[in-house]
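Changelog excerpt

This revision adds worked examples to the README so contributors can see how folded entries look when concatenated. The first example is reproduced verbatim below.
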Amino acid sequence: MTNNLSYYISKFFTDELENIKETSINTRKTYRDAIVQLLNFMLEKYNKKIENLEISDFSADIINQFITTLRLEKELKENTCNVKLAAIQGLFKFIRCKNLQYINICNEIIDLKYKKVEDTFIEFLTIDEITKLFSVFDLSVPIEYNHFMLITTLYETAARIQELCDIKLKDVNFVYNSITLTGKGNKTRIVPVNKVLIKNLSEYAKEKQLSQEDYLFFNKNGKKLTRVGTQYIINKYIDRAKLQFPDLFKIHVTNHTFRHSKAVHLLEAGINIVYIRDILGHSSITTTEIYAKCSLELKKKELEKTCNAIPENVSYSKSEQDDLLKWLKTMI
């Protein structure tokens, strides 16, 4: 068997990620970016070109050096570094299966531990902020009407941004009020949505004369929307909302914020967390429980606000203590 790393990288992407695991394009991009960064590191640090790299050129210590460089020099967050490490470990798991000669090197790299990531409070928009955001659109302007449909669908479906961009008209069920989303690993899920959105989408599709195979949302050139394009649209209306409601919208809003917001709003509405897991397309309910913690933290903060009205150091004079004792005796 060959020792050439580029051979295994090529096979890893085509055979493993694309054909066997059928991972999404975005997942493959994540793996690609991590491995490209590793190859660049090997060139800069050890003057090793990709065509000359061999499996034996790697070790757990070198991978640790690479991750440390990302953390300190590139200033990547711990969670991002963990994602990079997971991608590299995925490659070496593949190599281990294909060439047992390097099982020890692969095992050392696969056994590297992730850094613990501190719990972060998920930022989300309140229902009031969502309502006010929707109010800033001028629906008489065609482009703003298009953008309104885009953002309301993003929120109502709690879709990942790529899932939203991939929606075709055929994915919208106008009878059962639902939209089929295609998520990670090309897994599909049916998300129930409210009748108002379905009615609006029906009118929108007729106005745009969409066919069943047409993407639901597209840019001004009629092409499929991208992540960058969608974020640009979101930024435009968030900026407008900030001007109209200066006391609100204090968080940094991304396309994923709408997914977070919908999840928290469903929890606060009393929807069972199992159903929310299915709507979000999580493989494990543990992931969904993050939102339950987020909701609990919010309630805790609101409770602390009310407690602030209570004086911290309450002291009683001698006469007040005597009066209190007399009153207590009458109650016994």
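The second example, added in the same revision:
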Amino acid sequence: MKKIWKYLFLLFSASSSAQITLDTVVHPWNAIGYDFYPVQISSTETKYYVQDTLTNTFNLYNMDFTPFMTNIAVPEPYNPFVYNYEVIYLSRSLFDCDTSSIEFAYTAIGSALSGATKSFYIMRTDGTQLFKLDSAYAPYCFGCLNGSQDTKPIINTSAGAKLFLYYPSNTNNLHIYSLCGTLPKIFDLTNSNVDQTYITIFPNPTSGSLTFEINLPNNMEEFELVIVDNSGREAKHEKINFSNHRCVIDVMDFSNGTYYYSLCTKRKAYQSGKFILNK
């Protein structure tokens, strides 16, 4: 019988002298790790992930626990037994560099060990299937061979982000894929370089118009400036070239709130950030 976790978010106020402040309590405690966890969907956005194994959907919440996206269907049912399907990556631009939508990788961890034939999916939250590989799974190993090495299915490399999938039904081959985007740098512990700034925006917050001063990373690619709202819907996009380093965008028609921008090419997202509109 399938399980379903009920989450109760309770906000508490802390005394003025406290240095460690309780944000919330999540019930039950043993849901942590599979049914509830924080996820970095871009370099500027962290969400809480909550899965519902009864309805085969998951929900995303903002850091203040208000709903961000709800009732997102998964391609195959959650399984309450061993080697069950899990959402392992959520991102705005890791797999297709389209920041107007959110995408996720869905797989059965450890399915090769069980002898089961599972599929690895990459989906958009609108239900669009971007990729599927049958009889494959994403390798995970934390502290491999009792050491300090960690194995993860996606890592950033000097040649871009790479996806690793084991394909046991095909003579145990390892398939290596190049991805369009990169993992958010907040989770990239292998990159110690200081991020280069390509975009400066002002004023922020704004009440009507916003100026983007843009220093393009190179002159070989076609760049776009993409703006999305707090629900992930595209609000505006502008083509950027070397003769157009300053871009003034009128946002008077937008509703008040927080918006996110990315400087993108078809290959990757170079920089993301956010601004606040308060008319």
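Reviewer comment on example two: Confidence is low (pLDDT under 50) at residues 1-16, 186-195. The two ends are 51 Å apart (CA to CA).
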